[in-house]
What does this fold into?
Amino acid sequence: MQQPQTYRFQWAGIEIEATYYSPIKWGVIAHLEIRSIQPERAPLPITETGYKSHFHACGTVEANGGDVVAQIIAWLDEAATKPEWRAYAAKSRQGELF
It folds into this structure.
């Protein structure tokens, strides 16, 4: 088993930490943990709680170029186009008086 790789990056003004574990469990599954750290637990388009645990087949990240951060950003960007996230983002920018 390889040592986990931890990355920090910004997306839409949110600092994110991602830890990639590959492979775990008999060499047949990999694991990606994504969490918003600044602001802490800020919602992301892939998780309302600011934390995402994602298991996937070994080699998935590597088959897509191996750049963990680029793949997470692409995932966030794609999810941010969904109506639910767009509505949340618009409401967050607007603020509420009541």
